[in-house]
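Lab manual, section 2.4: Encoding a predicted structure.

Procedure: take the sequence of the chain (305 residues), apply the prediction step described in section 2.3, and record the output as structure tokens. A sample record is shown.
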Amino acid sequence: MGEMIEVARSSVQTWECDNMGHMNVQFYVAKADEGLAALAAALGLSARAQRSAFASLIPREHHIRFHRELRPGAPFAILGGVVDCRPEGLIVYEEMQNAASGAVAATFVTRAEWCEVETRGGLPLPVNAIAMAPDLTVPLPPQGAPRGLDMAPPRPAPTLKDAERMGLITTFRGAVLGEHCDAAGYLTMRHYMGRVSDGIPNLIAQTRGEDRSTSRIGGAALEYRFVYRTYAREGDLLVLKSGLKSVGAKTYTWCHWLFDAESGDNVATAEAVAISMDLVERKAIEIPPDMRANLERMVVPDLSV
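Recorded output:
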């Protein structure tokens, strides 16, 4: 058994924050992706090694928990380690901490596979990485374990027609631009989450008739699960369909299905546990009765990641 190492250190920039006043979820994913690259390098899979092998460590699934806000100017560090090493890849754990207080801000569990760069097809993990993994192997700590989400095997990939038949709402539609892609022309992990985040105000507008830019009541994600089915490329047209899975005492769970708008094929499925938040008091609030009644009417049966 090994121990975690530092894989990233930086601070929150104003332009990384949204109208909730804290770092937007897509930038948490971007920082974790940087940390994954550093952890890969510690296993002998540096960028140079990846270029010579025409391969890369690609996330297939993410589980993310947001524990505390990170607001503009907050310093942070990310520690990372290997939870499991498999012939095809790794399960890694990353923990983002406020560098001043040491408090955990977010945790990430990533199932990543060693893949051919151009096709994203799976390859055997290099033997040197397997040999080095024990020195970085750590148990999954309690704060990284699922809390509000079921981590059962994901459903078969839905189609756009499935989403339309189930009455899911269109919350984002747009093209994959070059600046959203990596060197191979694939959409980066940050921008999968970004598509969902950018769609939330449309989701609120269509389900509650509210303009989030003028409301004192906002929302915050507590937990996310992403399953990456295929990988969008520059120029692809994407459409996001969203629906409500369940309503709890203080939380509600949304599902988001991202599709290639041309083929109708599923690109990714995601599930998120969220809370209502008073943006002045900076604290979670009970779901208002009228909002709860409206939400309960919108629950879509058999919806899942």
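Check your result against the sample. DSSP finds six helices and eleven strands in the chain.
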